[in-house]
Specification:
The structure holds 2 protein chains of 2 kinds.
Chain A: E1 2-8, E2 16-22, H1 26-37, E3 45-50, H2 76-89
Antiparallel strand pairs in A: 1-2, 1-3
Chain B: H1 3-23, H2 32-60, H3 64-69, H4 80-83, H5 90-112, H6 117-144, H7 148-157, H8 169-178, H9 180-184
Classes of the chains: A alpha+beta, B mainly alpha.
């Protein structure tokens, strides 16, 4: 059985995939994960998950290249810049703040 | 040598020799993950030996290196159980591991209750690592307990833990290997 191991480097941080271990059962998997990914103080916590429990999704339909679905479809930085310029030019207008 | 120092050296000898024996599996354990786990246990045992030798060495006015490597083979107090070279028999190796960890737990518990605060503190530290070894041993015990080979190995090895006055030829060979550096480079340290 293959178990996928995720590790958390510091408390509060997101768990990231660390690697996998081969083990006959959950108990062995936990011991091996501890040994491979936790023994040197490199993790505050581990998640040990049987590989079958992980559902992989890799079919993302984007037939028409609708790039407006993506955040980079909107050049927000430029828009913001223009808005700030306008605001600065119009006395008494909206203040865009100092950011 | 007081009884207490003698006991410490005895445990240190067990841990040193068992650490050495377990490390003979490094690179050839039945599974890559187990290779890492078992090697790490071997490394811990040698670390325990070192700490115990250091404590005993202060009492005896010597050094850990001298205790570990400058004695003659028949001066070692290690158990007959740990002297055996068990590679490549995994069933017997795990049987020894289970027998040893159980027996070791009892004596480490006793050391934790010692009046000597330093010794009790060291025993507590060692015990925290041994807890992991015990978990590992129990896990294998559960997996193999119905196997005939494993049962036979337990029966064969169980009585050997308390035998301390015998040195088998396999131990002399290990001693040669273990002390080679000290014997060829005078003053080499751990």
């Amino acid at each position: 059985m293959i178990y996928e191991v995720f590790r958390q480097e510091r408390k509060g941080q997101a768990f990231a995939h660390a690697g996998s271990v081969e083990a006959p059962n959950e108990e062995f998997a936990e011991a091996y994960a501890r040994e491979q990914y936790g023994r040197r103080g490199e993790s505050t916590a581990l998640w040990v998950v049987p590989r079958q429990a992980v559902h992989e999704i890799d079919d993302f339909a984007d037939e028409l290249q609708k790039n407006y679905h993506r955040v980079d479809g909107y050049p927000l930085k430029e828009k913001l810049g223009r808005a700030r310029e306008l605001a600065a030019k119009s006395p008494g207008g909206l203040s865009a703040g100092a950011g | 040598m007081t009884d207490q120092v003698q006991k410490i050296v005895e445990i240190a000898d067990d841990e040193l020799v068992l650490g050495w024996r377990n490390s003979e599996w490094t690179g050839i354990a039945p599974l890559l993950e187990e290779d890492v786990a078992f090697s790490s246990i071997a490394q811990n045992e040698i670390g325990h030996a070192r700490a115990l030798y250091e404590l005993a060495a202060r009492e005896l006015g010597t050094t850990a290196d001298e205790l570990a490597f400058d004695r003659q083979p028949d001066e070692y107090r290690c158990s007959r159980l740990v002297q055996l070279r068990l590679v490549p028999d995994w069933a017997r190796t795990i049987a020894r591991h289970c027998i040893y960890e159980r027996a070791d737990q009892a004596r480490i518990e006793a050391l934790k209750r010692s009046d000597d605060a330093e010794l009790a503190g060291l025993a507590a530290k060692i015990d925290r690592e041994e807890a992991y070894h015990r978990m590992h041993a129990e896990m294998w015990f559960d997996r193999l307990e119905d196997e005939q080979r494993f049962k036979a190995a337990l029966e064969e090895l169980e009585p050997l833990f308390d035998v301390r006055d015998e040195h088998i030829p396999e131990f002399a060979e290990l001693w040669e290997e273990m002390t080679m550096v000290r014997r060829s480079v005078a003053g080499a340290t751990w």
